[in-house]
Structure to design on (362 residues):
């Protein structure tokens, strides 16, 4: 079969031979080509594919930094304390029910923004090492993977708040967040997957426990699990 | 004189491009294992010996040899440290290494493109 790519290489050599016969300075190039192993187009294509595959596979190793996990955990614990005082104020009738709900939403929105913000800044710090293309691909995967879980959690939170079922919000968060994190963990690191599963189990357990313990469990999971995860990852992969 | 060549041989331009691409293949990188090492280090920035070994499925000695070669060329830097009494050797890509690898990828792409151009010319 007539190999057209081989023909191209042949053309190249014919061109060189012609120039050599003209005693041009390309003579030295001929010597270089003889020494260096010359890949043909098929080999070049295969190499490029191998490189791309390897680079995409290795995004699995650079999802979250340990420090952002610890920061997220601290933010969550802060949110728990604020919620605790909000609850106390509500019981003592210092604030209205509506004020409580608004403050509650604001507090936890702030926690989420703080956690994401810190993670974004820390990721930017690692960006020159990891590469912008890889990070944006990671980001896309993370948004698509966690979208359903987080979206459901947000909707359920609003609905439960409206029906004054605040204590049911906490296990709901654990379950929805667990789904989101597990999804991200499926195509990135195994540790992220385990974190997600831990949230799911904790959520199921919290559903079985008396409602009063809900906020404490939020501290344990969103606070403790994140800090533990962050410490493990930081120890393993570096800060 | 070059212009005469280009006039007489219309495909000489492609020939020159192909020659240029062929000449610039870095033989330090153009090898299966070393290509893999450079790809990983470009993506991760740095990696320890264990990670490289697991990802590329190379033996200790084989991986060591290739890493030493890349180190001698200045493409990779080695950093030995102790983490809680356990030794950890990590390798990072240098700026020279990054540039060399990107040039290598560009050369590969040029070879593919040059042959594709030749295909269309022949057709």
């Amino acid at each position: 079969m007539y190999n057209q790519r081989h023909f191209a290489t042949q053309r190249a050599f014919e061109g060189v031979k012609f120039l050599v016969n003209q005693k041009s300075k390309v003579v030295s190039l001929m010597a270089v080509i003889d020494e260096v192993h010359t890949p043909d187009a098929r080999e070049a294509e295969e190499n490029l594919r191998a490189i791309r595959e390897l680079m995409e596979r290795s995004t699995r190793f650079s999802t979250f930094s340990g420090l952002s996990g610890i920061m997220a955990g601290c933010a969550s614990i802060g949110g728990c304390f604020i919620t605790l005082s909000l609850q106390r104020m509500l019981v003592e009738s210092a604030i209205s029910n509506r004020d409580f709900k608004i403050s509650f939403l604001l507090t936890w929105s702030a926690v989420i923004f703080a956690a994401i913000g810190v993670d974004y800044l820390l990721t930017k710090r690692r960006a020159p090492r990891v590469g912008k293309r890889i990070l944006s691909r990671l980001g896309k995967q993370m948004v698509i993977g966690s979208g359903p879980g987080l979206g459901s959690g947000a909707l359920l939170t609003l609905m439960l708040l409206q029906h004054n079922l605040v204590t049911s919000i906490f296990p709901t968060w654990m379950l929805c967040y667990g789904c989101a994190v597990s999804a991200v963990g499926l195509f990135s690191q195994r540790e992220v997957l385990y974190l997600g599963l831990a949230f799911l189990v904790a959520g199921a357990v919290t559903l079985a426990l008396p409602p009063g313990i809900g906020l404490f469990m939020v501290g344990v999971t969103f606070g403790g699990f994140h800090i533990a995860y962050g410490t493990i990852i930081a120890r393993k992969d570096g800060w | 004189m070059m212009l005469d060549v280009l006039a007489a041989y219309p495909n000489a331009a492609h020939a020159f491009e192909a020659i240029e691409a062929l000449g610039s293949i870095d033989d330090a990188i153009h090898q299966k294992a070393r290509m893999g090492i450079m790809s990983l280090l470009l993506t991760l920035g740095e990696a320890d010996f264990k990670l490289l070994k697991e990802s590329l499925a190379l033996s200790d000695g084989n991986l060591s040899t290739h890493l030493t070669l890349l180190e001698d060329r200045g493409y990779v830097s080695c950093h030995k440290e102790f983490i809680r009494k356990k030794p950890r050797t990590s390798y990072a890509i240098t700026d020279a290494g990054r540039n060399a690898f990107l040039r290598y990828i560009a050369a590969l792409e040029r070879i593919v493109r040059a042959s594709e151009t030749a295909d269309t010319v022949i057709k």
Summary: The helical segments of chain B are 2-8, 12-23, 32-44, 49-56, 60-72, 95-122. Chain B is about 65% helix and 15% strand. Chain B has a mean pLDDT of 80. Chain B touches chain A at residues 1-2, 5, 9, 11-12, 14-16, 18-19, 22-23, 25, 27, 30, 32, 35-36, 39-40, 42-46, 51, 55, 105, 108-109, 111-112, 114-116, 118-119, 122 (CB under 8 Å).
